[in-house]
Amino acid sequence: xxxxxxxxxxxxxxxxxxVPSVKxxxxxxLPQNEVLIRVNYSSLNYKDALSATGNKGVTKxxxxxxxxxxxxxxxxxxxxxxxxxxxxxxxxxxxxxxGQYIFVPANWVVKLPEGLSLKEAMIIGTAGxxxxxxxxxxxxxxxxxxxxxxxxGATGGVGSVAISILNKLxxxxxxxxxxxxxxDFLKGLGADEIISRTDFEFVDKRPMLSAKYAGAIDTVxxxxxxxxxxxxxxxxxxxxxxxxxxxxxxxxxFPFILRGISLIGVSSQNYPLxxxxxxxKKLSAEWxxxxxxQIYNEITLDEIDNAVxxxxxxxxxxxxxxxxx
Length: 325
Description:
By secondary structure, the protein is an alpha/beta fold. It folds into two domains: 5-112 and 295-323, Quinone Oxidoreductase, Chain A, domain 1 (Alpha-Beta Complex), CATH 3.90.180; 127-265, NAD(P)-binding Rossmann-like Domain (Rossmann fold). It is 27% helix and 28% strand. Strands 3, 4, 5, 6, 7, 14 and 15 form a seven-stranded mixed beta sheet that branches. The longest helix has 24 residues, at 118-141. The protein is globular, with a radius of gyration of 20 Å. It starts with a strand and ends with a strand.
């Protein structure tokens, strides 16, 4: 393997405090693996922010380079191929995309599909890929003419990409958001209706609510998910990926039995390679969001600290990508 110096955002544990900085490393310092990739772009996800602030549930050992997303060019293995790496253990317990080089197993790597640039792939990133996995399941059960689709956490990475794709596929979308200042942003993505988050945060002990929605993409869990389930139409479906609000779900079986609804959970982290390729293929073609250039902010390695603080405070919208060039 060639020895190349490169920049990386490294988090170190110093007397119980987690200190991030941009450092110079060498490719010889990376754990030996199969595919060496020169990273062009990465992206910021909530899990990256947790890793960057010392969450041992995400990253066990420090010093560490976060970044669960990376898009770049293969240096060794199939040199010259443009590729995407998302999920698996990237940026969690192996050096991640916040470094200019990564060295990963071959079965983590997806060749960049035609129709996507490396930059666009990271605007989509894990968040958009997760939305794609959710929509793969939802569109199997709920068709556009069935009624309105709810999207919770609408201004976040998963939610914003989901709204854009649903709009492109002909679905009517109701976005749940607590950010009044972002209503124009959500309408620009294709939301037909915007519902205040407070309307879904109340604790209602009734086993069911009025049946208003055909389905939902949920990214937060907790009480919001409970109320979504209660408000689904007969044969409705909700696909959930999140637990930001809570990991607890307090509900009854009545919506499932009396209305025949479905609750489907997905995780994109260890999604199998061949289905992963198929989702990326859709995201590069018929599911490619029309609003990609409207939902991202681009930063450098030196700006990650501030972006981490903002995402943990819920102040970021859409996607944040890191230019690693």
